[in-house]
TrEMBL record, chains A, B, C, D:
<feature type="transmembrane region" description="Helical">
    <location>
        <begin position="58"/>
        <end position="76"/>
    </location>
</feature>
<feature type="transmembrane region" description="Helical">
    <location>
        <begin position="88"/>
        <end position="116"/>
    </location>
</feature>
<keyword id="KW-1133">Transmembrane helix</keyword>
<dbReference type="GO" id="GO:0008076">
    <property type="term" value="C:voltage-gated potassium channel complex"/>
</dbReference>
<dbReference type="InterPro" id="IPR028325">
    <property type="entry name" value="VG_K_chnl"/>
</dbReference>
<feature type="transmembrane region" description="Helical">
    <location>
        <begin position="212"/>
        <end position="234"/>
    </location>
</feature>
<keyword id="KW-0630">Potassium</keyword>
<keyword id="KW-0813">Transport</keyword>
<feature type="transmembrane region" description="Helical">
    <location>
        <begin position="27"/>
        <end position="46"/>
    </location>
</feature>
<keyword id="KW-0812">Transmembrane</keyword>
<protein>
    <submittedName>
        <fullName>Ion transporter</fullName>
    </submittedName>
</protein>
<dbReference type="GO" id="GO:0001508">
    <property type="term" value="P:action potential"/>
</dbReference>
<feature type="transmembrane region" description="Helical">
    <location>
        <begin position="186"/>
        <end position="206"/>
    </location>
</feature>
<keyword id="KW-0633">Potassium transport</keyword>
<keyword id="KW-0406">Ion transport</keyword>
<dbReference type="InterPro" id="IPR027359">
    <property type="entry name" value="Volt_channel_dom_sf"/>
</dbReference>
<dbReference type="InterPro" id="IPR005821">
    <property type="entry name" value="Ion_trans_dom"/>
</dbReference>
Length: 291, 291, 291, 291
């Protein structure tokens, strides 16, 4: 079997699996997307007790079909990629591996429920397919806005956590075990349920003082829920809104051109001399490529 | 019966039914609005069990009055419109049809509860009447802001859904059936109840580990509730807030054209004479290129 | 008794009661504020059952003290104001009257609980006193932002209400009476509880289909809670933020001055000649009243 | 013992305790941070009932270790600071003192639960350590945004409180004791639970009229939750969003310094030569006053 022929076959397979520009590549992505969603639905349906036996039979057959497809896909991905090791240990490589093995593992770990979670992880594979769609641009903007506000949100969540711990300790003392505030961790759990306005009601204060403290906590939560919203809102508006005003009196656009004399860069777009060494930036009168 | 006479009669009816400029047209809209709201109230009252028989009698008579009015109205709409077929299969044509038939259908489908939902759909007809009010401009702005942010909100909701499925699977394993997490779908339902901060409390974690995961999930929900708000807020601000109203009475767009006589610039786009020296800005009658 | 003397006495009393610039006026406001808050606390404490008799005795004496003070104050307000009738039928006049009468009414309407609500209405009087504080500027800004967004919020709440009625009807059919969805009004109540993310949990879906519809409703509520927030946020930012930049290069302030020659208006504030006909706008060198 | 030697020893200790620039200072901060978090975890674990005795033993030993460390640290802080009295009565001085004494107090106040809250207050010490991290800048921005919106949020919360009291009184009359609305304070507590969308469900209206009022209250809460969010969002955007990032790669801060040769201004803050004519901006080596 001549080497070049195999190479073409590999390249075509690589195109189909890793790209979405060809009709075959698109078809592959759609089939994969359907199988992933199907496999998650299988997991969900399987967890519902009290169904007739034939349902479980079909679910088992379905899981086999999906596992076989994923096995072939996983092997094909390893074969067609240039550096298999970098794929195998990449994020999606690990997810692909975990998506493939649950059924094989079930022969070893008989009756283990934890394989269910592993099977649910297949859902993460959806993101790779979505990467090639038009929604990914939006997702990136969202991700950027969230990322930009991360330190602020972390500070905020940390403050919320401290309020929750202090309020939880206080409620544990005020309400005590008989009202459901069994321990400080349970009270802190209640504080978080309350501060986030979830309010399950499985634990609720019954003493007037406890209800008063709870009311204060809720109004605080109401007042501070505004903070992360305001942060993300402002960050998002900034990241998608206009660039900083070019007409502002305090800022000017700089480019990456480097001075030939001293190497300093980030000159004003209309600079004619280096701001660092005074060297003429354009001895031959070549206008720099602004922006 | 001469044709032109009928035509005038039809045109008047069309005016009354489809427009709201004439006193009769306004009266018709108000009567229709009252009947729609009344019909929905009838549906609601009818669903309340344990009332004396005469109440149900009156509700039945009321439904007949409304159905007869709607029947005549539906026929009148078909007669007076130029292309009946395009009306019949339009959104409001279908709604009008569905609003008319429940009582007739009740003779065929005896005792069917589902006619109640059909009758509640009459509420959608309210939107057509509101179209001619001043509120529709606001609704359009809102709709535009929501529409502009749709891809972002879809990406966001999709991410929320994946978090809900993964968290639901995890909670199903951790808490199990005895805590109310009966199956993965039920656990996912709980995750959505928690992430959206609704928090019914019909299902609630009881194990420390489950409460810990729930607390993390809630704080995540608290942190990410900011995202759609931030998006809509920014989109809305952009769609309505960007430019000072061109229609405002206090501001007008000016251009950079300079007066040939005195050099003053920033004239109104429609200026014909300089506001500084009174020089004719367009002696050759060349219309300036407004914006 | 000479007329002018009484007039001075009346004017002083008017100053004390209606104004807060003099020390006596400030003192009066503070005493009134304390009595109002005290009277509301009395109402609250009185509603708590199972206290010793002497508590109720003291509450009764306290109510007498407050009622006598309010009676004198109400009479003084009527005497000192120029047009008593316009005060009596104003918003605060009615509130003042209602604040005064509960105890007197209690002799006629023995045992009526509804006097409690009337007594709680005294709280509204606090707003009049707060009017003279520094917080009123902030409250006005807030009120303006809310007022500006009113039509949008009304459209939004109306849409929410229609969603709630349709979802409530659907849930009534799906879940039925045995799950707590006793009637369509009760189901609509549940829909509103869910859409607003309050989530009491007194009624909760138990069937898988009902839970699925509830999940969709919650995610919708999660997605659309952003709308009013975005609106108020943008309106507030607009109302408190800068005016459209006067320094911008593209817009200029215009006034309502009309050209005497051609009648064209909306000239630049610094215009000396009409932009439409070139007529000198200020032949007598009278500077136009800008803004 | 010579004075200077002690002074150096003190200065070194001061550096370690109060600063974080030296390796020893950083190590000290990390150890302190771990001990604080550990001490709070100890409090939490201790509150969980039903653990084996040896757990309580270890918790007791752990508390001794932490108390001894805190005692030495507190003494060291007093010794090394210049004015001990101003430290002792500062906010962190009091927190440090309260962090140290619980175990000693437990010999006097045997079995007092309230020492638990005092021990939880140790958490507040974390803020001092975080002051030296990069997150404090973010926290300051957040704090500033919250501080700027404080009067608005206070006005808002006051209005919410009045709505809660009036609605609570109304619900007390409508629902009465048998539905859980035992007294007006309890009803106000329920109003706050509802308005803030927490919705425990421990108290819930059962009468149709009560459910209707509750629905109105919830929709009001839904409509007005937008207000604090809008305020903080706008304030935050204003306080942080105005100026573009100084660290951005594309923009650089320029100052108003003018070139003595050609008069060109808006040079980079660190410019040494004019970007227009190449003239040395600082022939006398006078560093320009940046920013």
């Amino acid at each position: 079997m001549p080497k070049p022929k195999e190479s073409i076959w590999k390249r075509r397979l690589h195109e189909i699996i890793y790209e979405a520009d060809t009709p075959m590549g698109k078809l592959f992505d759609i089939v994969l997307l359907i199988l992933i969603l199907l496999s998650v639905i299988l997991v969900m349906v399987e967890s519902v007790k009290g169904q007739p036996d034939w349902v479980y039979d079909y679910l088992y057959y379905g899981e086999w079909v999906i596992t076989i497809f994923f096995t072939f896909e996983y092997i094909a991905r390893i074969i067609t990629v240039k550096k298999p090791s970098s794929y195998i240990f990449s994020f999606y490589g690990v997810i692909d591996f975990l998506s493939t093995i649950p059924l094989y593992l079930s022969f070893i770990l008989v009756g283990s429920n934890y394989l269910l979670t592993v099977r649910a992880l297949r859902l993460l594979r959806v993101f790779r397919i979505l990467k090639v769609t038009r929604y990914i641009g939006e997702a990136n903007k969202l991700g950027k806005a969230l990322n930009d506000s991360r330190p602020k949100i972390l500070v905020f969540l940390f403050a919320v956590l401290i309020v929750a711990i202090l309020a939880g300790t206080l409620m544990y003392l005020v309400e005590g075990e008989e009202s459901g505030f069994k321990s400080i961790p349970a009270s802190v759990y209640w504080s978080i349920v309350t501060l986030t306005t979830v309010g399950f009601g499985d634990i609720a204060p019954v003493k007037p003082l406890g209800q008063f403290i709870a009311a204060v906590l809720m109004i605080m939560g109401y007042g501070i829920i505004a903070v992360p919203t305001g942060i993300v809102s402002a960050e998002y508006a900034r990241s998608t809104g206009k660039k900083p005003d070019l007409d502002s009196d305090q800022y000017v656009h700089v480019n990456s051109q480097a001075c030939r004399n001293c190497g300093a860069s980030r000159h004003r777009d209309d600079a004619e001399f280096c701001h660092k060494c005074g060297n003429n930036l354009h001895p031959e009168d070549i206008v720099p490529n602004a922006d």
